[in-house]
């Protein structure tokens, strides 16, 4: 089954044509690393995928359900299956780590926010929150305020919050951009380990090409609102990835140095 299917999608903001007939498919359980320079349309694509920005033309389906034909109620239900890990963590800084993780279950509860407050949460929710914190190695920080944590620890809390959501798809928007290299690798290791354990589908944007060489099943590259590179990670040369951040719109095999024996990916 295709977890995500994007077919000939266009998105405009006034006269700015951001997504230009973009097509992308991601299978259930697959991890795709999305690369591209700032302004190429990556963030817009991610907003379209979780329903935050309606697309103008084309079709987007999540587990076979077309986003542009769902009622608001059905769209809310579908969005519960899509967890987002942000670059800036999006935590409530002046409340506890435990409470931030509980917020991840808000969309599942009959009374929403009220049911996810620590003072009203059920024993089941509280146990799940502690188990999520244990999984990311922060159970001992449950009662600390998030503002007391390092950047790497805060991103671990954000991952634990996503685990509470019971999402089936993880959209990670530059999850290590705010971290130093050591913390960034630790977060990527943790995120991909959790994904493998739960057999989740992942679309993760990165700018760190050295990390892109190590993680995921496929490398997808964007330029000017289109997919110009889509190939298994092990087939993509570093020089090919670097071309995504240069001026030419099209990536081709001339990007690979003559001494590089890595196969050149197919280009779309």
TrEMBL record:
Record keywords: ATP-binding, Cell membrane, Membrane, Nucleotide-binding, Translocase, Transport
Any Pfam family hit: ABC_tran
InterPro entries: AAA+_ATPase, ABC_transporter-like_ATP-bd, ABC_transporter-like_CS, ABC_transpr_PhnC, MetN_ABC_transporter-like, P-loop_NTPase
Stretches assigned to the ABC transporter domain: 4-249
Protein name: Phosphonate ABC transporter ATP-binding protein
One GO MF term: ATP binding
Native organism: Vreelandella neptunia
Membrane-topology descriptor: Peripheral membrane protein
PANTHER family: AMINO ACID IMPORT ATP-BINDING PROTEIN
Gene3D superfamilies noted in UniProt: P-loop containing nucleotide triphosphate hydrolases
Subcellular location field: Cell inner membrane
SMART domains listed in its UniProt record: AAA
